[in-house]
């Protein structure tokens, strides 16, 4: 999808300051609304899915500016979010296999029964909030810088978007890990294959910041 948008933007008018303003405003509004919807979700997988909508709206915004920096930021964001979203979906599946439910109200208090899995949840949510040294921070900063150069006014909705992203990430972490454990669920221990799978998601997020030219270009 991101590749298709990148190809389409090449045929759009060369004056995005005037003709593409409605599209950029719509993408900014859509990103904020998607993050607000995340705060109202009770289904774990729906929350993660809606978070993808919010992050991909940033990719659209970067591509609509039609600048090299915007294209670079969009590429980094797509790779970073692909790894982060896949990691959180893996964690949601491990939680579902043990609780047989995706409802956040029922699957609570897992930190007490599966503390190592709670560590993975913490790392995944920190990456979703673009915490250094993950590659997510480079993608978000590139997109924000591009949009601020395009129009300084965009810093206001971008700041709101960042705060909402942090809010629903913490909401997802607290709802699943904190609280009183559900005694009706049989929490069998995590497997080595699950930890290996999560490690293969987290390592690229951390190591790509050392050599971001692999995805951002020279």
Automatic annotation (TrEMBL):
Q: Where in the cell is it found?
A: Mitochondrion membrane
Domain NADH:quinone oxidoreductase/Mrp antiporter transmembrane: from-to ranges: 1-165
| Key words of the record | Electron transport, Membrane, Mitochondrion, NAD, Respiratory chain, Translocase, Transmembrane, Transmembrane helix, Transport, Ubiquinone
Q: Where are the transmembrane segments?
A: 20-40, 47-65, 71-92, 104-127, 147-174, 195-215
Q: InterPro entries from the entry?
A: NADH_UbQ_OxRdtase, ND/Mrp_TM
* The organism's place on the tree of life at top rank: Eukaryota
Q: Does the keyword Phosphoprotein apply?
A: no
Q: Which GO terms describe its biological process?
A: ATP synthesis coupled electron transport; electron transport coupled proton transport
* Class of the enzyme per the UniProt entry, highest EC level: translocase
Q: What is its main location?
A: mitochondrion
Q: In the record, what terms sit under GO molecular function?
A: NADH dehydrogenase (ubiquinone) activity; NADH dehydrogenase activity; ubiquinone binding
Under catalytic activity, the entry for this protein gives: a ubiquinone + NADH + 5 H(+)(in) = a ubiquinol + NAD(+) + 4 H(+)(out)
Q: What membrane topology term does the record carry? A: Multi-pass membrane protein
Its cellular-component GO annotations read:
mitochondrial membrane
Q: What is its EC number?
A: 7.1.1.2
Family membership noted in the UniProt record: Belongs to the complex I subunit 4 family.
Role summary: Core subunit of the mitochondrial membrane respiratory chain NADH dehydrogenase (Complex I) which catalyzes electron transfer from NADH through the respiratory chain, using ubiquinone as an electron acceptor. Essential for the catalytic activity and assembly of complex I.
Q: What name does UniProt use for this protein?
A: NADH-ubiquinone oxidoreductase chain 4
Q: Which classification does the entry list for the species?
A: Eukaryota, Metazoa, Chordata, Craniata, Vertebrata
What gene is behind this protein? Answer: ND4
